[in-house]
Design a protein that fits this description.
Number of domains of chain A: 2
CATH architecture of the largest domain in chain A: 3-Layer(bba) Sandwich
Oligomer: homodimer
Number of strands of chain A: 17
Distance between the termini of chain A: 25 Å
Largest interface: A-B, 46 and 47 residues
Mean pLDDT of chain A: 93
Helix content of chain A: 10-25%
Radius of gyration of chain A: 21 Å
Amino acid sequence: MSKSYQIIVIGGGPAGLTAGLYCARSELDALLIERGVIGGQITYADWVENFPGFPQGISGIELGQLMHRQATNYGLQTLLAEVTGLVPHQRHNLVTTSEDDFIAESVIIASGSRFRKLGVPGEAELLGKGVSYCATCDGPLFKDKVVAVIGGGDAALTEALYLSKFASSVKVIHRRSQLRAGDILQRRAKMEPKVEFIWDAIVTQIEGDGAVNQLRLKSTKDDTISVLPVAGVFIAIGLEPNTSYLQGVVPLDKEGYIITNEVMETGISGIFAAGGVRHNSARQAITASGDGATAAVLVERFLSLP
Amino acid sequence: MSKSYQIIVIGGGPAGLTAGLYCARSELDALLIERGVIGGQITYADWVENFPGFPQGISGIELGQLMHRQATNYGLQTLLAEVTGLVPHQRHNLVTTSEDDFIAESVIIASGSRFRKLGVPGEAELLGKGVSYCATCDGPLFKDKVVAVIGGGDAALTEALYLSKFASSVKVIHRRSQLRAGDILQRRAKMEPKVEFIWDAIVTQIEGDGAVNQLRLKSTKDDTISVLPVAGVFIAIGLEPNTSYLQGVVPLDKEGYIITNEVMETGISGIFAAGGVRHNSARQAITASGDGATAAVLVERFLSLP
């Protein structure tokens, strides 16, 4: 027979850890399941300056560890496994994982989102050898080198500005002739002398023998091919929600994010969602934590109903 | 002419301070207005155990100060004044205060809520002399004394359980014969030998010469009057939103809380609300902070529109 819990939290980022803290502190029998690293996306953050309460900032890894220790202090259990399915069934929801199956009276989905892949030859092969999705993690490795950033949104310009502190030159490659990023970021990027824009171009291949040394570009205007020598390439074309196991289970928007109301209810009784996996999430550590606490408060109310 | 800002944040609790941090860090010209103490309701919290990132807990006052310093580091300006009115007018919203009037392109309302008053003789006169709204603040002052808690909800029982660590006896006075509090709290309170319940009774007067020494009670069943000797009385009958200056300005629910969608929009262009002032807020420091960050992200998007 499957082991059962009052509450299972899927995902160990700020949303899941805060939900777990609140549930455990409320003396609920709670299990948190994380497939990768405790802390989630925040562990990619070299230094977090905007989590309130830390005026000097804090490393993302340390913040995740502090949150985990706090939840564990109150009795939260943690399992490292991948959730493969969720079958809602009133107070006997089935959670299947790579390790074991579980029954949960209620579930908080906090499985977050992940960086979108470009999907070109060389991307997977050269990951960690010049291909990166996280400037704050890997930027310092490219001191005085030429790097490229792919994308035209806030994330791409944020990455480019951060990289300009290290790299000799930052080429922002965008498939259109206009950025999607906010005005403030655009102004800052355009004022930064190290940042250059390559408009109307897509990357068709990332090349290098053991390490990235050039990108193959194609013009979106006239299909001409060119080659750009770079030592690193940062892919910043957005995020994808980790909801492939939830198709047909909870209401998703067209990008696959979970639709909730303002108290984290999914519309399926006993199933809540929190953090970056939600439609319209501001995708910040602090907003994810807030979501997690709200979901946990609602779970406690849900479980106290007859 | 009134001084103008890109964003005015009303209220200096966790919601307002986090909104202020985010706005200031985004290089917006931001003013936060607080009428009382920076930190808001959290400063009443002796020790905060459930703000993620602080496994050992932190005093509410210190948490508020850390948040304020962090926001100030990025350039947030703070004014101590009472906001008396808000007149929305596209990008020229008028904010009137006890000190001065201001124009703001956008406004985040984070003015929170406050403890509800009983409204009986002696309540105001003996405040701080045995009358309290915050067990975690004042509980330790009543070591080995008899105290009363008024109310029947989660807050009342949480206060009663906390007070049982200090007081010799805790009398919970409730006007009905059944509690509104959650099951877990009810079980815990009924198992605590120091906690006793006085059902179907209301307090009509708080009496004492310089300090509380007794309560006058009236039965809600038969109107009989009795006297209960106590050294302290903790009033835990709920919260009221600080929205009296917002009647007819933004949509409020029937209790006076601001109605927002899940991204803190009030329905009035450029006017956002965050934290305990919102309808359906979980009223936790961490959920308020999350709300504040979400509102700030939306403000930045709003201001970047042409």
